Amino acid sequence: MNPYIMSIFLLGLGLGTTITFMSSHWLLAWMGLEINTLAIIPLMAQHHHPRSVEASTKYFLTQATAAAMILFASSTNAWITGQWDINELSHPMSSTIMMLGLALKIGLAPLHTWLPEVLQGLDLTTGLIMSTWQKLAPFSLLMQMNLNNSVMITMAIMSTMIGGWGGLNQTQLRKILAYSSIAHIGWMILVLQFSPSLTLITLMIYIFMTLSIFCLFKMNKTTSINSLAMSWSKSPTITALSPLILLSLGGLPPLTGFGPKWMILSELTKQDLNMIATITALSALLSLYFYLRLSYAMTLTLSPNTTPITNQWRFNTKQPTIHLSISTMLSLMLLPLLPGIMTIIN
Amino acid sequence: YIRHHQHLLHPVLSRSVTQSEYRRPGKPREDKPPWQKINFSFSKGLDGIRKHLTLLKKEFLERWVGPQGKPILEHMLEQNRVVWEFRGPESLEQWTVSSDFEIGGQSEAYLKLGRNNTTCFLYGTLRSTPPKDGETRYSGYCSMRSKQPLASFDRKQHHDWTSFNTLHLRVRGDGRPWMINIAAETYFSHQKDDIYSYFLYTRGGPYWQEVKIPFSKFFLAHRGRVQDDQHPLWLDKINTIGFTLGDKADGPFQLEIDYIGVIKDYAHTEEFAYELYKRNPEV
Q1: Looking at the structure, do residues B159 and B204 belong to the same domain, yes or no?
Q2: A22-47 pLDDT, tens per residue?
Q3: Domain extent for A276
Q4: Same structural domain for residues B126 and B98?
Q5: Which of A91, B99, B146, B256 has a Cα at 20 to 30 A from A62?
Q6: Cα-based angle B172, B178, B183 (whole degrees, multiple of 5)
Q7: Mutate which of A120, A173, A175, A226 to disrupt the B interface (most B C-beta within 10 Å)?
């Protein structure tokens, strides 16, 4: 794509999220979300394949519906209570509709069905932007609202379970990452009303881990489990490290991904929600199963030729490796710093 | 001057309302209102519920074994898969045979099981006289198309052939040039006739012919017109496959198919056989 046009879209993405971050009026926040949607749509459709066009259409329709729900909820609240401030969303109907709208924006179950199809139709870079950057703005709004809802906890538990269960049936990597995103967002929303700072920590760590996974897949130029199994010939070092990244996504100690889950479970038990904590921890096992399956396919088995493309052999890659190296380090080694992070963010 | 008094329920009972405007030639005109066409059977209903609930339970539980019901090792090592095999009369239920008889032409096509119930036999007569409706100019085709696979409660399911890259058929034709049409899943309504096609040149004769066609050779056509903006066939959502004959040669035809499978040809590394007209290709 023409670099000027590409820079317009990327700067538009940055602008939209920044506007939502800095806004205290609902209309300005909504505008930031709309700028984000509109800026990413051409990036999604740039390949003009029918599947990409389908993905961008589905994304546009769902995000526009969510934006309409957000606008409706905020204007209803303004009509009833006269408040346009983001943290003054006090009427229960408005806050419920607002929550549903923001849930549709981020792909929380049961409003998650668009996410696997949309991610499947995108190339890896755009999928990365959609999984990580597009989640920031709605989360900033969610964290500023004071929500006190059992609907939210229900949606969160459903997300973790659906994210785990749905990912078990997939062989395409982008759909696996979509279901992993649904599960992680479930974990984030679970603790939103008790400790928003924990949500922020989980979101940041999730973004680093997803960044490293997408960069890994881009480095190997792979989109399915079968072609992922050939990464041993392209780059043995990253093949040896990537099970750790996947296990970090699954939430195993002593890797970074364990930290947020641990903190969330301890927060839930402090709030006396032991049953919910148990259910969520058990559904994290489902996600762990498909992460383990990916690491099994990639590293723990030396598969025969499973792709009909000519094998690459340890060529020096022309892509920038800085993203992969930094995000891998962050997603593997941050657990000892967890007390410091909790102190800073709390 | 005659006053035409219409019955009160005339808009409900008029023939154009109870039947749609187009009547397939050869079908008798049915004048029954919709409430008389219901055929209610309690045991069939129960059978249907049981079948769908079993399918639903199987869908839920097969994930424990692995993706799409197969263990991950089997999925990774799978090199060939037989998708359609004709071993009994229920295998013919998965196929739909059509010819230009539906638009008023005179070709005929029938499908039956071949010898020893091991093959399927598509035979008939092709006649390219156009139907006399004043607007059709060309005619003379017949085809056999697989039905879309259905999950529980008649939801659409797709074939996932991402691990494969070549179509492998064992056919015995009669020397005519057939066309293989693969229909993938589309989203917009104007894409519903988007079909990827390629040719199948049969050799005739008593010997079986093994045909291997890579999926990279399939080109995109819409209602028979080859498109300028080509792209490779995405194999993760295939709906149907079909065989069409329309070679303007009147007379009898036959095609016998033993099996239709997909294989992973390691020697075939081409991604797409036709020019993509990329303006800024990555080097």
Answers
A1: yes
A2: 999 999 999 999 999 999 999 999 88
A3: 147-307+317-345
A4: yes
A5: A91
A6: 115
A7: A226
Instruction: Confirm whether B35 is domain-assigned.
Output: no
A231 touches A298 (CB < 8 A) = yes
* C-beta neighbour count of A25 within 10 angstroms: 13
Q: Does B1 touch chain A (CB under 8 A)?
A: no
Is the interface score ipTM higher than 0.95? no
Omega before A254 within 30 of 0, i.e. cis: yes
Nearest to A267 by CA among A330, A201, A183: A201
Instruction: Determine contact, residues A163/A181, Cβ cutoff 8 Å.
Output: yes
pTM score of the predicted model: 0.90
Cβ contacts from A onto B, under 8 A: 70
Which CATH number goes with the domain that contains B105? Answer: 2.60.120.430
Domain count along chain A:
1
Task: Count CB-CB contacts under 10 A for residue A315.
Answer: 8
Displacement of CA B44 from its chain's centroid (Å):
27
Give dist(CA A143, CA B70) in Å, integer. Answer: 42
Rounded Cα distance, B89 and B94, in Å:
10
Residue A125 lies in a domain: no
B187 at A interface, C-beta within 8 A: yes
- Residues in B touching A303 (Cβ below 8 Å): 76-77
B265/A contact by beta carbon, under 8 A: yes
* Position B1 pLDDT exceeds 60: no
Is some CB atom of chain B closer than 8 A to the CB atom of A54?
yes
B47: containing domain? 41-77
Q: Do A308 and B160 touch (CB under 8 A)?
A: no
